[in-house]
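Quick review question:
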């Protein structure tokens, strides 16, 4: 029973920290460009290498 008294506030605190991190990320614009990162992988940045050879 004493384990629940210790673990319940820790679990609630971790949940609140996760919720706060989610709201911080949403307000700072982390979820605005969801496709951009996946498309940047496909873009070839080595244009200088092809023009010099």
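Suggested answer, residue by residue:
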């Amino acid at each position: 029973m004493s384990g629940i008294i210790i673990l319940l506030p820790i679990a609630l605190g971790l949940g609140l920290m996760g919720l706060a991190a989610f709201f911080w990320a949403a307000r700072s614009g982390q979820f605005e460009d969801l496709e951009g990162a996946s498309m940047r992988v496909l873009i070839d940045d080595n244009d200088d290498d092809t023009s010099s050879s």
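Why it works: The longest helix spans residues 2-27. The chain has a mean pLDDT of 86.
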